[in-house]
């Protein structure tokens, strides 16, 4: 993090350098229109096909066909979840949180899309409803549903505390993916990736720029809803930090289950077709 007391004197033109106006790297108006209203209209008459309960401090997988919807629902108490997405037919295509953050911002809500890794770079899912959109940004700079945190993991735990903890989200997702696919854990682990932190309230401290978490505003009945743009395999971990108001990677935090609901619409949204992978030719100038 930046030093509180710099080691080097400011140059004579420091004020001019500091005053340079920021430039948005990826103007959102140039992104393809997700057609949010058309997607929402397709919910009329939909059928709840499956529910999957994610136990506290564990993870579970579910499959959602392209053109269907799914919700992540708070059921019993405030609980955050770590979400991974894979192309169900090619696990090498997975959610790319860093590019999603660059395109949509640090925290996601209705109309934002979850983009896939290179060389595909296409929407995997579109957020169609967010019951926590009222929260916005609080006075600390915190907001919900971030794509800045990576997921709690046993390696960082060992680095910082010298202990091993096996119910962190990285390990939970590894076990769930291995169980779903029949892979050995060593095969599944490299496929686990940076997450969408569903319901988690996070930001960066204004003085030091450090990543922080605070108690999530989620309550039973809140949900985050998605439209599957391609055939999806999803993994969701109910974080061992509970609402992450005090700590994570913990057996003492109060934790609750999460629910995945999968809905089949009567018909595909008007004018919708599954997105094609990026049309970049892959030559890289060679």
Mean pLDDT, to the nearest integer, reads 96
Strand content: 25-35%
Strand-and-helix sequence, N→C? HHEEEEEHEEEHHHEEEEE
Total beta strands: 13
Label the structural class. alpha+beta
Helical region count? Answer: 6
C-alpha end-to-end distance: 38 Å
> Which segments are poorly predicted (pLDDT under 50) over 5 or more consecutive residues?
none
Helix content: 10-25%
Assembly level: single chain
- What's the gyration radius in Å? 20 Å
- Tell me, what's the shape? globular
Largest sheet: 7 strands, antiparallel
Question: What descriptors fit this protein?
Answer:
globular, 286 residues, alpha+beta
Annotate the secondary structure layout.
Blueprint: H1 14-18, H2 36-41, E1 47-54, E2 59-64, E3 69-74, E4 81-87, E5 90-94, H3 97-104, E6 113-115, E7 123-130, E8 143-146, H4 154-161, H5 169-181, H6 185-188, E9 196-204, E10 211-214, E11 223-228, E12 232-238, E13 258-264
Antiparallel strand pairs: 1-13, 2-12, 3-11, 3-13, 4-5, 4-9, 4-12, 6-7, 7-11, 8-9, 9-10
Structure description:
The protein is of the alpha+beta class and 286 residues long. The chain has one domain. The protein is 15% helix and 28% strand. It is built from 6 helices and 13 strands. It has helices at residues 14-18, 36-41, 97-104, 154-161, 169-181, 185-188; strands spanning 47-54, 59-64, 69-74, 81-87, 90-94, 113-115, 123-130, 143-146, 196-204, 211-214, 223-228, 232-238, 258-264. Strands 2, 4, 5, 8, 9, 10 and 12 form a 7-stranded antiparallel sheet that branches. It has a 6-stranded antiparallel sheet with strand order 1-13-3-11-7-6. The two termini are 38 Å apart. The relative contact order is 0.27. The model has no long low-confidence stretch (mean pLDDT 96).
